[in-house]
Write a structure and sequence with these properties.
This protein has eight helices and six strands. With 224 residues, it is an alpha/beta fold. A hairpin with a 2-residue loop joins β5 (181-185) and β6.
Length: 224
C-alpha cells in the first residue's frame, strides 16, 4: 500500500480509544474458541487493506470475534468472508475466491476493504460512541483513496457510517436498502447491499446472484 495508508494502518492497530472494545477483543484473543485453540489471535484493531488505486471500497460493520480479530484481516477466516471473497473473485476484484489468513496469497485489484468499526464488538453491536471514535480512520482512508468512485455498504450500519464520514446533513436522508444508490458527492456513489452475515446468507435473504448483481453494478459505477 501507499506510505500514507501504511501510516493509517499503524494508527489503527495501535488504537485503544474504546475501553469496552479493547477489553472484549483481548479477552476473545486470550480465551479463544476451541477450534482455534492452537492459533495466535491478532486481538487488536483490524486495519483496512487492498488496492491503493481502488475505485471500489467495500465497507463492513466490524471484525468478527473469531474472524478478523483472530486473523488480523477483516472478513478473513469466517463465513461472511467466504461469501464476500467468492463474490469479489467472480467479479474480478480478487485473485482467489477464499481468504483464510493474513499472509495467504489474496490480492485485491481495484478494490479496498474496511470496517466502520475496527475492533470486534460484543454481540457484534458497537455503540454510537464507538462508531464515532472509529470514523476518523475511515475518513483518512477515503482521503488517500483518490480514485474511489463507489462505496459498497454491507448493511445499514455501514451505510450510516459512510453517510456520517462524508459529512452527513443529507436532506432527505437516503435510506438503506439492498441495491439502493445514492450519489453522495461528485463521482462518489454509495451502493447498498445486505450484509454477508450468516443471518442473511443462511436464510436466503441474500443470495449469490443478489451479491453478484451488486458487484456488477459497482464495476459499472466505478468506470463512470
Amino acid at each position: 500500500m501507499s506510505s500514507a495508508l501504511d501510516l493509517i494502518e499503524a494508527e489503527v492497530v495501535a488504537c485503544r480509544r474504546c475501553p469496552r472494545l479493547v477489553a472484549w477483543r483481548e479477552e476473545v484473543a486470550r480465551v479463544k474458541r476451541a477450534s482455534f485453540a492452537g492459533e495466535a489471535y491478532w486481538g487488536r484493531p483490524v486495519p483496512g487493506f487492498g488496492d491503493p488505486d481502488a475505485r471500489v471500497l467495500v465497507l463492513g460493520l466490524a471484525p468478527a470475534a473469531h474472524g478478523g480479530n483472530r486473523t488480523g484481516r477483516v472478513f478473513t477466516g469466517d463465513r461472511s468472508g467466504d461469501w464476500l471473497f467468492a463474490a469479489l473473485w467472480r467479479a474480478g476484484f480478487a485473485n482467489q475466491p477464499t481468504s483464510v489468513s493474513r499472509d495467504d496469497a489474496l490480492a485485491l485489484t481495484d478494490c479496498f476493504i474496511a470496517a466502520a468499526v475496527r475492533c470486534a464488538p460484543p454481540a457484534n453491536r458497537p455503540t454510537p460512541v464507538e462508531r464515532d471514535n472509529c470514523l476518523p480512520h475511515l475518513e483518512r482512508e477515503l482521503a488517500e483513496l483518490t480514485s474511489l468512485r463507489v462505496i459498497v455498504c454491507l448493511g445499514a450500519f455501514a451505510w450510516d457510517a459512510a453517510l456520517r464520514v462524508l459529512g452527513g446533513g443529507f436532506r432527505p436522508r437516503p435510506k438503506f436498502a439492498h441495491g439502493a444508490e445514492f450519489v453522495a458527492r461528485e463521482a462518489l456513489t454509495l451502493l447498498g447491499c445486505y450484509h454477508v452475515s450468516q443471518q442473511n446468507t443462511f436464510t436466503g435473504r441474500l443470495t449469490e446472484p443478489m451479491l453478484d448483481a451488486v458487484f456488477s453494478r459497482a464495476r459499472v459505477l466505478g468506470c463512470q
